[in-house]
Every structure is written in structure tokens, then in C-alpha cells.
């Protein structure tokens, strides 16, 4: 019988763990799916990991790990993939905003041969205006940069073991799970779902953190910003040629004294472009620096009793 692993990154979700694990467990049992739940507590400051420990003692199909600090949801997802033993792995939020009833549909598609089953949002849940605007901007920028339609995509998806192994084999440190599963290819299917309201607690994203996320993901997946620097350079060269011609004409006509405004403007424009370009290049160098250091994506500080292997430090599979 095939095993389905469900990976649930959780950050300060003490109120959700019990409810989510019960809901998922009974749903899997009803549908006769052999399952395991993997909770990754992302350096939570509340009792999330204690809750995970408690539910794992009640149900041996629940396993979990705690990070030494907050490493972000991406790291949580990858730690979960690393721990998962399933023939297929579902990644979902642990606040039940990704409706669990979708999982049996994904499972069905997987049985019919799909290797990546993408959850596609058919309706976004209730969100504040600020969040909606920043998330909208985020997806527009991302779709442009990645040349993939990201507006409906989410981290809610099922991956076949083959795909999980491909993702785990990637050496890069700055990952973008959502786009990587596109990038990997394989036979894809989609299942649409409606985003539910959060049961307890509140969203961990702010406008600022979404912006940082957008920039980090854009630069980890696209070199377009670097090419933009070249385009900007060419535009300013064109502009300066036109100005040069104008200045020369004026000089030859003998009325070349004015033009101080032009000089100031030029200095500002060129200076601005240069600084922006250096900033973009600097950002990529920072990325290269981070990758070259080759630090692990996350550090695990504690695991539930039913997890075997090297527990402290980056997780290494080992029996
Ligand atoms: N999450 C995480 N680490 C973080 C932030 C969030 O593991 O640093 C988890 C969180 O516990 C939840 C999921 O990622 O299971 C989605 O987070 P949230 O519900 O806050 O985001 P939203 O649903 O508003 O996009
Ligand atoms: Mg949520």
C-alpha cells in the first residue's frame, strides 16, 4: 500500500496543531489512505512543539521536528520533504486554510499517474485590503519575472517521490518551492480549491515581509533584474548622445553658456541609475555569497521520539 506524507510547516500555531492533526487523521482514515503527518515547528516562540510532541504520543503516525530558530516557511517545507517517507507528499499550511478535503482528490490524480498535483486557488479567502494589494503586486512581479502564471498557485501541492527527490537533490540554498515544482517539470495536474478562513491565530505575513519574500524569490529564480541594468545603461547612453548633439549644436551656434540645469539633471539621473544598478548587482553578489558559504537551509534542535537519525544540526537521513 502506498504511503502519503503530509508536510505541515508551522510557526506559532499552538492552537492549530491538535485540531489540524485530528481533522487530517480522521479524513485519511475515512478515505482509507495510509498516511503520516509531519509537523515542522519553525522556531516557534509558543507551545507549538509541545503540542506536536503531545499529538505524536497519541498517534504514532504523527512526527515532527523543531528548528533552532525561525528559518522561514521555505525551510520548513524542505525539512518536511526531507523527513517524509511517503510515495507521495502533500505540502499544506497547518492553519487549515488549504481545505483538507482537497487531499483525497490530489491522491486520486496521483494514483491515475500525475506526478505533481498543483492546488490552484479558485477564490482567495478574506484578506485585508493592504494584504490583497501587496499580494497582488507580489504575484504580478513574480509572474513577469518567472514567465509562469503564479497568480493562482500556492504552496498547496502533492509531489510524487521522484519529484521530492529531485527537489531535495538541489544544492541551492535560497529556494522557492512554488516555482521549483514548475521548474522540475513532470506530469502535472491541477485541483482547484477555495482558500478557507484561518481557524485560530493570525497570518504571519506583513506587507514588508511579503516584499522581502518577493525580492528574494525574484533574484533566486531570475536574472532579469541584472539584464535590466544593461537596458537602463543603454537608455542612458542614448539619452546622453541626444544631449551631446544638442550641446554641440548650441556650442557651434555660440550660445552655450546656459545648461546648468541640464548638468544637474544629468548628474542626478546618471547617479541614480548607477546606484540602482550597483544595488541590483550587489543583491546578486549577496546571493552568491550566501550560496557559496553552503550553510544548511535550517537547523533542527529537537525531534519527536519516532524520528530516527542524526537529530541536532541539519537533518541527514540515516537509519
Ligand atoms: N509559517 C512558517 N514559518 C514562518 C511563517 C509561516 O512555517 O516563518 C507557516 C505557518 O505556520 C502556516 C503557513 O506557513 O502554516 C502559512 O502561514 P500564514 O497562514 O501565516 O500565511 P497566509 O496563510 O496568510 O499566507
Ligand atoms: Mg494561513
Overview of the structural elements:
By secondary structure, the chain is an alpha/beta fold. The chain is built from ten helices and eight strands. The chain has helices spanning 17-30, 48-58, 73-83, 102-111, 129-146, 161-169, 177-183, 207-221, 224-253, 260-293, and strands spanning 3-10, 34-41, 62-67, 88-91, 116-123, 153-160, 188-194, 300-303. Strands 7-5-6-4-1-2-3-8 form an eight-stranded mixed beta sheet, sandwiched between helices. Helix 1 (17-30) links the parallel strand 1 (3-10) and strand 2 (34-41). The protein starts with a strand and ends in a 16-residue tail after the last strand. The structure holds uridine-5'-diphosphate and magnesium ion. Uridine-5'-diphosphate is lined by residues 9-11, 13, 42, 70, 72-73, 76, 93-95, 97, 203-205. Residues 9-11, 13, 42, 70, 72-73, 76, 93-95, 97, 203-205 line the site of uridine-5'-diphosphate.
Amino acid at each position: 500500500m502506498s504511503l502519503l506524507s503530509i508536510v505541515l510547516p508551522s510557526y506559532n500555531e499552538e492552537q492549530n496543531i491538535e485540531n489540524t492533526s485530528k481533522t487530517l487523521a480522521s479524513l485519511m482514515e475515512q478515505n482509507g489512505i495510509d498516511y503520516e503527518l509531519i509537523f515542522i515547528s519553525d522556531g516557534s516562540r509558543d507551545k507549538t512543539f509541545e503540542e506536536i510532541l503531545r499529538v505524536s504520543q497519541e498517534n504514532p503516525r504523527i512526527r515532527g521536528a523543531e528548528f533552532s530558530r525561525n528559518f522561514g516557511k521555505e525551510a520548513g517545507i524542505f525539512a518536511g520533504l526531507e523527513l517524509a517517507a511517503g510515495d507521495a507528499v502533500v505540502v499544506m499550511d497547518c492553519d487549515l486554510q488549504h481545505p483538507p478535503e482537497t487531499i483525497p482528490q490530489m491522491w486520486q490524480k496521483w494514483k491515475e499517474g500525475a506526478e505533481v498535483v498543483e492546488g490552484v486557488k479558485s477564490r482567495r479567502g478574506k484578506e485585508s485590503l493592504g494584504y490583497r494589494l501587496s499580494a497582488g503586486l507580489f504575484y504580478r512581479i513574480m509572474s513577469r519575472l518567472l514567465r509562469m502564471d503564479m497568480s493562482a498557485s500556492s504552496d498547496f501541492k502533492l509531489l510524487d517521490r521522484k519529484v521530492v527527490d529531485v527537489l531535495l537533490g538541489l544544492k541551492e540554498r535560497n529556494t522557492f518551492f512554488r516555482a521549483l515544482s514548475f521548474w522540475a517539470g513532470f506530469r502535472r495536474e491541477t485541483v482547484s480549491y477555495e482558500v478557507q478562513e484561518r481557524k485560530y491565530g493570525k497570518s504571519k505575513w506583513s506587507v514588508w515581509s511579503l516584499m522581502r519574500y518577493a525580492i528574494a524569490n525574484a533574484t533566486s529564480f531570475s536574472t532579469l533584474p541584472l539584464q535590466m541594468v544593461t537596458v537602463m545603461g543603454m537608455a542612458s547612453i542614448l539619452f546622453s548622445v541626444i544631449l551631446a548633439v544638442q550641446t554641440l549644436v548650441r556650442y557651434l551656434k555660440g550660445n552655450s553658456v546656459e545648461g546648468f540645469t541640464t548638468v544637474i539633471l544629468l548628474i542626478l539621473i546618471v547617479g541614480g541609475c548607477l546606484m540602482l544598478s550597483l544595488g541590483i548587482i550587489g543583491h546578486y553578489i549577496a546571493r552568491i555569497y550566501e550560496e557559496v558559504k553552503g550553510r544548511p537551509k535550517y537547523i533542527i534542535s529537537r525531534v519527536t521520539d519516532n524520528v530516527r537519525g542524526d537529530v541536532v544540526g541539519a537533518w541527514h537521513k540515516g537509519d
